[in-house]
Amino acid sequence: MSRIRRFSIGNPIDTEAVLKKLPKDKGGIPYFQRIQKMEVEKFSEDSQETMVQRDYLSYVMGPEVKIYGLGENVRGIDKRGWVYESNCTDDPNHTEGKHALYGAHNFFVVAGKETFGVFLDYPGKLTLDFGYTRMDEIHITPEEWNLDLYFLEGDTILEIVKEFRRLVGRSYIPPRWAFGYGQSRWGYQSEADIRAVVKGYRENQIPLDAVYLDIDYMEEFKDFTVDQERFPNFSDFVEEMKQEHIHLVPIIDAGVKIEEGYQVYEEGVKKDYFCKDQEGKDFVGAVWPGKVHFPDVLNKNARKWFGKKYKYLLDQGIEGFWNDMNEPAIFYSEKNLEQVMKKIKSMKYKNMDMWEVFAFRDLVNGLANNPEDYKSFYHKINGTSVRHDKVHNLYGYGMTRAAGEAFEELEPEKRILMFSRASYIGMHRYGGVWMGDNQSWWSHLLLNLKMLPSLNMCGFLYTGADLGGFGSDVTEDLLLRWLALGIFTPLMRNHSALGTREQECYRFTQTETFRKLIGIRYGLMPYLYSEYMKAALRDELLFSPLAFVYPEDDHAREVEDQLLLGESIMIAPVYTQNAKGRYVYLPEPMKLVRMRSVEEIETEVLEKGHYYVEVPLEEVVFFIRPGKIVPYTKSGQFVEEEYQEKDIRLLHFAEEKAEYEWYQDDGYGKDYENPKHYRKLQVK
Ligand code: GLC
Question: Three-state DSSP class for 39?
């Protein structure tokens, strides 16, 4: 049994997160109480007492309550015990003390004596205090009281999540080659650099399907341009790479460079498609190219216009993109920079005390992504001017939707790869997300794992982190361990920042281990792709916390570092440096699979219980559930080489008969529903 109710407060902006709007429920909001009160607040010993208006939704949690969801955010799978913000933020330091990352995903499930799901459809800043102010209360505070609230009920958490996913619509499905391994780095400058990367992989027989083009491919960081000196024959080069079975995936940024003669800029100005400032002029921010305008992707016509710009690259043979800096990130605004410069000038020759030094430092640090800037520009939504901060979380969604809608028109028969940095629920229909600028830290390997089920709950199935870490210098063991998780994530991309240690696999000593590890991903593709497709087509999770599948099991409910992947597998990656292995909890008997490569496999049946499992750096360990099958194949150098049905082999933990429903299609087309794509694989 499942049930969804929609409540509406004030005048919500239609985010189009939900496919079909339900009629408003006329009753009172369930579970939560709206608390409106005046409170005395004193900021410090000697400060004056001030009266503060408090207005929030409150829910009292029993000690047993766990909270799941919120998509991309810091901290645990169980989100209880911290205050989160729904506020798309460009911040590369994903530490526990932060409150928001790049996405704004306002869906969560409260699981306790009563279990229910909540979706707050609100595109502005929202505070989700999950036991921070008071350990036993949830406090929800939108910046303004204009929102739609959905309450979902069902017999199990999985059922509630499925119901939610149905409400918001089918998750994005990428082409199959996008499940191959990809190499990226901010700093690949030219055709020669890319060729060297491909050579490094192919010569060492480490599989590879994609190389990502970061901002360096553009001419002066201008969207929809290619630098003619460094890529003199771009479409020939794209073709040359295709011959090597490599897809080039260029980045597109939100800001459009202000430059006379640059067509995208000139058209946008002429057609009035950029966001406006308070005076009605095109808003000026700055990102990579210096001063930019932001296309108003919340305005239908502007969105359509911006989307069509991708054609320039599609026409040159490109089949995939990543959308970046679309929170949107703003290095500085023209206006704020002017004021800051003035203040700094006035401080010249000053004997600054502590407070003045702090203030001086904050002036410069506060230039980027300044909340005041987000309040100083406007969108035109269905003819009405709306201040940006009120719809901040929709910008990345709008940009990716622009592309997604254009692809439907330009390439109706073909899947185009698309993933974004910023996102809101609803965007999951148009593209995936990567988890943004992480660091080469062991804690971020674990955070990568924890975000997977939360993102899946919110509809984002095509996702993954920058493997090896984006910022900081990676170590060889960290990259190996991270890849051992990455071989299970739909987006499997190694990406790193300019100035950090080079982290292409062939630059390290254990080339053979890299080859075999990534080879395991390719070997497991029949299972991984099939599970992805079924999860997308059935609105299900690809990654589940153990708590969702074994809700009666006290230990399973506590596990935060193992996940179920599809119907057959449990993963338990190592995320600690120098560890020889790790503790694993088996909530039921399982078959341990130890792979050195797809040709070197050992298995062992284990009873339910706690184990210390040794996992050398050269091995991947996972577990098969009772009665389940994992189809796999030999490993190759690129995805298209793999999929011969005759090569399918079966790993299984079946004492008697077992069956697996194997989904297999051409990986490009869109006739997803065709029953021919489903085949039964059987043992005994
Ligand atoms: C942003 C992106 C990162 C990219 C960089 C340069 O930080 O998140 O992935 O490499 O910009 O384009």
Answer: strand
Q: Which helix (H) or strand (E) holds 556?
A: helix 554-558
pTM for the structure as a whole: 0.97
Cis peptide before 30 (omega within 30 of 0): no
| Cβ proximity of 460 and 433 under 8 Å | yes
What is the tens place of the pLDDT at every residue in 357-399? 999 999 999 999 999 999 999 999 999 999 999 999 999 999 9
CA distance 96 to 99: 8
In the residue annotation, 324 being an active-site residue is answered as yes
Q: Which one is catalytic: 191, 209, 282, 437?
A: 437
CA atoms within 13 A on the CB side of 334: 13
Residue written as tokens 């901290």? Answer: 75
- Amino acid in the structure at residue 413: E
pLDDT of 92-108, one tens digit each?
999 999 999 999 999 99
Beta carbons of 656 and 628 less than 8 angstroms apart: no
* Residue keyed to tokens 């071989």: 487
Cα 621 to ligand 1 centroid, rounded to whole Å: 32
Which residue has a Cα nearest atom 3 of ligand 1? Answer: 437
Among 129, 209, 296, 324, which one carries the catalytic annotation? 324
Using the mean position of ligand 1's atoms as its centre, give its distance from the Cα of residue 539 in Å. Answer: 31
Q: Is the CB of 437 under 6 A from ligand 1?
A: yes
Name residue 424's beta-bridge partners: 104
Question: What is the DSSP-derived secondary structure letter of residue 24?
Answer: B
Alpha-helical regions (H) of 272-423: 300-308, 311-314, 334-346, 354-365, 371-374, 395-410
Mean per-residue pLDDT of the chain: 96
Q: Which pairing describes strands 247-253 and 210-213: parallel, antiparallel, or unpaired?
A: parallel
Distance, CA of 271 to CA of 264 (rounded, Å): 11
Report the C-alpha gap between 398 and 379 in whole angstroms. Answer: 11
Is-catalytic flag, 327? Answer: yes
